[in-house]
Structures are given as structure tokens and as C-alpha cells.
TrEMBL record:
<dbReference type="GO" id="GO:0003682">
    <property type="term" value="F:chromatin binding"/>
</dbReference>
<dbReference type="InterPro" id="IPR009057">
    <property type="entry name" value="Homeodomain-like_sf"/>
</dbReference>
<dbReference type="InterPro" id="IPR017930">
    <property type="entry name" value="Myb_dom"/>
</dbReference>
<dbReference type="InterPro" id="IPR053078">
    <property type="entry name" value="TTF1-like"/>
</dbReference>
<dbReference type="GO" id="GO:0006363">
    <property type="term" value="P:termination of RNA polymerase I transcription"/>
</dbReference>
<dbReference type="InterPro" id="IPR001005">
    <property type="entry name" value="SANT/Myb"/>
</dbReference>
<feature type="domain" description="Myb-like">
    <location>
        <begin position="124"/>
        <end position="172"/>
    </location>
</feature>
<dbReference type="GO" id="GO:0005730">
    <property type="term" value="C:nucleolus"/>
</dbReference>
<protein>
    <submittedName>
        <fullName>TTF1 factor</fullName>
    </submittedName>
</protein>
<feature type="domain" description="Myb-like">
    <location>
        <begin position="173"/>
        <end position="255"/>
    </location>
</feature>
<feature type="domain" description="HTH myb-type">
    <location>
        <begin position="124"/>
        <end position="161"/>
    </location>
</feature>
<dbReference type="Pfam" id="PF13921">
    <property type="entry name" value="Myb_DNA-bind_6"/>
</dbReference>
Amino acid sequence: VDLDTARRELKEFIPHVENISDSSIRKMAGRDLARFKQFKKQGIAVKFGRFTQKENNQLRKNVKEFLSISGIDSAEKVLFTFRYPEDKETINRLKAEHQFCAKISEGIPRPWRLIYYRARKMFDPNNYKGRYTDEEKEQLKKYHAMHGNDWKKISELMSRSNLSVAMKFSEIKSAINYGPWTKEEIQKLKHAVKEVVRKKVEMEGGSSPSSQEQPDRDLWVDREKLCQQLPWTEIETKVGSRYWRQCKQKWNSILVKKMSKGQQLHRLIKGLQNKITLIKRLYEMKVEDANEVNWQELGDAIGDVPTAYLQLQFYRLKVSFVPFWQKKSFPEIMDFLFQYKLPELEEKL
């Protein structure tokens, strides 16, 4: 299919498709579109977020079966072919002959790219080497000074995974504060987010004369742009004293607080309504694990609220009202909330 048709058809399965590059859309049209349509016929929605245990097991099974039919003797050779330059040509030929892309994604309703990244994380022996020694940290700083953000090159030199070296460098490159956020840090975070969002908006829509004349004017954007796909490593650099995961967590908490502002009565009523709807929706899903919940879809159904807000509400409900919740399964937690807490909230509303 042509690019516009592919983008239009993929939007049914991927709401944020407008933010995906043309080259990625072409790849998804070949690898994912037919799979997504097949899953739709089976009544299965395309998923994002953390992989469930069931999906991890299916992925292990897929990789094992591919190794069996292709004759390749290790998952590392299949997923990290560049580490075996002498066998590279043979491995790539076997991957093409035995449809590697299709085989490892069987039975997993996710974009192929996410499945591939998950497989690389699960089967990379360099991922499970424990804590970094002081000597390794110094090596990492030295290699970064030599090669910049070429994490593939650095991972080869250190025999660690790309993700591992990138995240570790993020933590050690400067003095990181692990205590409470100061007012100055929070202001830096807000300014950093504003800068990257403004740049993103201008790249998508083109910078207008008014935006150039008034660089500090108020910026109005869709709420989703404040919740997803922000360049956290860039934001980390602008904040300076926190690494990217801290920035992301703090920003989500700021959004939750912002959403809860307003008149007290309106806030109370809206909060009750959200809790009631959340319990009902989660109960109706009949899923076995919280990781199987499509929080993005749930947020749209409840009324355009961020996933972080919903997950925080669910956490507070189970911790505050479900006795011994740590020992209960997700269905048991939902049964309790539906049977005992829901009537109380409805009466209060």
C-alpha cells in the first residue's frame, strides 16, 4: 500500500501514528499491518507498555522454534548478528529463508519493532553482568569521551548491552541528586519540557512569524504531548542534576497535581466519578494481570486523562482499601473493590 493509505490504516491500531516517521510507517506496513488486522478479527487489541509474563513466554517459545527450524545454534547469533562477522552472511541468509520477522512475532499483538527490542533485551548475555565496578565506570567515561553517544561501539568495548551502557552513563556523567526536588530543579524541569515541546510543535507545524517574534508567549498544545514521547535524555541534560527516569517520574507527578486543581467541590465530584468509572472499567476487562490493561485506551474512555493519573488512582485504591492486597491477584483485588468500595463511592457521589 502507499504511504498515506498505510498511515490511515495503521491509525486504527496506533493512535499516535502521526508522530511516526515515514520510513517507520513503510516498515510497519510490511511487518505489522496484516498481523494487526488478523488480531482484530480474533478480537485482540494491539498492545503497548510492559510485556506480560504470558507474552515473554510466547517470545521465548518463538525464538526457540526459530532456532530449531533455521539450524542457528544461539539466540545471540540471531539477534546480535554483528557480533559474528565471519558468520554474518550465512546467518542473514537463514533469517531471510525462514522468515525471522514473522516467526518471532507470532501470537504477540504488538508492533514488530517492540517485540524485536524485547527479544534483544531478554537474550543478550551482556544484560546480566551485575553492578558496574568503579573501574568500569571510569572506562565508560573514557569511551564516551572517545566515541560520544555511539552506544553500539561502547557496548562492544565493554561487553555490556547498548541499553545498559547508555543508562549507566546517564547516571554517572554528572553529580546526581537523589533527595527531594528543590524549587530550582522543578523550575528547570518545567522550562526544559516547555523548550522541547515548543521545538516539537514548531517542527511538526512549521514555525510561524508570531512564534519567532514572541518566543516566550504561552504555548498551547494537546495534553498528550505533555504525557508521552518526550525526549527525556535531552530534558535530563537541561535539568543537569537528575537523570532521565527521575525527570520523567517528577513530570508525571506534576501533571497529576495540575489535573487535580480547581474548585474543591468540582474536584471532589470529578475525583469520585473517575474512581467509580475506573473500578467499573477495570472490573469489566476481566484480565488476569495489571500489565494486560491498555491504560492509554482506558484514559481515552474515561475522559482524556493521562495513563500516569489512572495508574496512580488504581494504586491508591488498592493500597488504601484492599486488605492484604500484596497477597491478592489482580482479579481478586478488582472483585473486592467492585463489591465493597464501589457502592460506598456511588453513595458518596
